[in-house]
Amino acid sequence: MRRTLFCLVLCLGIAFRSAGPCSAHPFNNGYTYIHLHENTADVRLLLPFLVMLQYDTNHNQAISDDELKAQQEEISAYMESHLQLFGNLRPMTYSLTGLKSIIQEETEDPMVELDFHFQSDSPIDKLDVVYDVVLADVDPDHQNFIQIFDGQGKVALQQVVDKYAHKLEYVNGGEVRFPVDFLALIAVLGVQQAVKNSALLLFAAWLCIQPVRLRALLKTALVFAAAGLLGSILSFRSGFELPQPWAEWFGIALVLSLAAAMLLRRNASGHRFAAALLGGAQGLAAFRSVMEAGVPGEYKMIFLAVFHLGMLLALTGMVYVLYTLAAVLRGKVGNRKKENGIG
Amino acid sequence: MNPSKWKIAAKWVLVLCILFALGAAAWYKADFNIAKPSAAPDDTDKADQARTKEIFDPAKTKGLLAIRYFYLPGDVAQGDCILIQSPDGKNMLIDSGNPGVGPAVVNYLNQLGVNEINIALNTHPHSDHIGGFASIAKAKKIDQFYMENVPYSSNAYTGTLAALRVKNVPIDYLEEGDSFDLGDLHFEVLSPGKGDLAKAVKQRKQDEQGDSEAAIYNYFSLVVKMTYKNNAFLFGGDIYQDREQELIQKYGSKLDVDFAHVDHHGWNTSSGYEWIKTLSPQFAVASNNIFSTLDVMKRYDNYKTKIFITRFNGNIMITSDGSKLKAITEKDQTTLPPGFLKNQ
């Protein structure tokens, strides 16, 4: 009886409750619909209240049209710098054409609807979308489902953008071109991994104190890179991955044992074998980091080769610098020995 | 300057240039955030089609327990819809997605030759869980409808209740301690706690509107444990990590299951580390047709659970003979970098 009464009271309460937005579930994802025309793009962005609460001035957990209207300029300025469209690699001019609070029909979720008009100077062959709305300053877990519609209103491309991937590239009426700029980034990643790798730095230093010519050392660097590429291919084929710290510790141990062997036997042989071992270990560890950078699967071999080319360039550079410094030091030591009448 | 001095100077300039270039490369913050765009949907190759056929072939699962996660199509997040078929051919539907996907679910049921739903269970009244039942109730015979005893104000909710009323479907309310059977399968309700819904309703009235009220409904989702011989399965609706933690305290090893529904569509709000560790499922499935949270997928993967998501895998079927589980997915996950998930 008490339960029935409770439900009755509750139903009445809900029936007389003022009509407010109902939320299907707390969510932080949004939707973007881009309709592409010859020189223009009309964009509709839907963002849930949860990521727009900074505009909820009366703190009632909802956003009214009045609140949006009062802050339209601020919102427009924010969006201009956080949602950018590029037509043929040139920034398109931006205007906010609509701003209102809606209930999304299908999900019954309360959202803010923003309409934009983007204009390009020339017909758009290639469209780039850079989406950074709320990701950096409000909610890093925000995701947005972007759909691009072609001139006939057909979905041409769709993609979720998030903190991991916030750029979208669309080539009008054709395939997306080979990502050359990304290739350069991967080469830089290779250089970075080499420069920040203490084992490699030690190895380069060890190489430079060998009594061999610079050209021979550069060949050793080539062996290192080739072994690295083979290691990465092995990692890809077998699924085996060497954790990066292990690869680094292995490299350090290897260089230390080589140095010890050199001190004991005064023998400089084996630096190419050591380079092959070190390169292989680094390659086994590097495969994952290359793929996690978002390399397109169909081009992975090219990207792996470019990554190891970056490592080769870095190692070559390190060897050249250290060899030059070592030569100066050797010269000075030689001069001092001459002055002291030694040797 | 004589030529040898020029040579030495050039050498040192080169050394400086190399140092500068290496330093710049080391400090450069590379932006790898280039999304891999996907073409418009509906690209299915022959292998995919073969597996689709297998998933929707009732003869393949005769005598087995079959759990099917339907891929709910659309350009908004469509929610959950799970069909459970007992080895003796009885059918249960857990949730039904948004109202707009009701016809798609009916179509899936038609493909499977399902005309009678013995039990329909709604975990909580949000649109993306209850909405599709309206279309399903109109097209199929529902023998029994289970839900929470809590009224809700949305078109999806009222539309479904109206459709159930028209078809005279009996509605029963569930809470902790309740249990029921579907053929050989036994179900036990673990959450919401006895009498807790009343508190939820009270809280809702206090909050009036906005986000927090929705979080409360998710918190009080029906959590159901299903047992078939030696296998156990857990369906947690949209509960968050706070509720997961409470259930771990309350039930402990009872939550150790072979299969787990990934709570709240795989969002970061749910699937805490301890929850996954306690459940330690062999398979887990998240129902989300558009979004995926990689951190959550990685969490399951770290505990050696094979995780599937409808966004990547399409329709997903888990079968059990009472001791061994098997998973078939319509599509392979190809979007994530190879090696991102180690146990897939």
Structural commentary:
The complex is a heterodimer of chains A (343) and B (344). By secondary structure, chain A is of the alpha+beta class. Chain A folds into 2 domains: 29-171, no CATH class; 180-338, no CATH class. Helices cover 49% and strands 20% of the residues of chain A. The longest helix of chain A has 40 residues, at 300-339. The termini of chain A are far apart. Mean pLDDT of chain A is 83; it is low at 1-24. Chain B has 2 domains: 1-33; 44-329, 4-Layer Sandwich (Metallo-beta-lactamase, Chain A), CATH 3.60.15. Chain B is built from 12 helices and 18 strands. Chain B has helices spanning 3-27, 46-55, 102-111, 127-130, 133-139, 155-166, 196-207, 211-219, 241-251, 273-279, 294-302, 310-313; strands at residues 38-39, 65-69, 82-85, 91-94, 116-117, 119-121, 141-142, 145-147, 171-173, 179-182, 185-191, 223-228, 231-235, 259-261, 283-286, 306-309, 316-320, 325-329. In chain B, the strands form 3 sheets. An 8-stranded mixed β-sheet of chain B has the order 9-8-6-4-3-2-17-18. In chain B, strands 10-11-12-13-14-15-16 form a 7-stranded mixed β-sheet. In chain B, helix 7 (196-207) runs antiparallel to helix 8 (211-219). The longest helix of chain B is centred in the N-terminal third of the chain and has 25 residues, at 3-27. Chain B is elongated. The model of chain B has no long low-confidence stretch (mean pLDDT 89). At the A-B interface, helix 1, strand 8, strand 9, strand 10 and helix 4 of A face helix 1, strand 1, helix 7 and helix 8 of B. Strand 9 of chain A pairs antiparallel with strand 1 (38-39) of chain B.
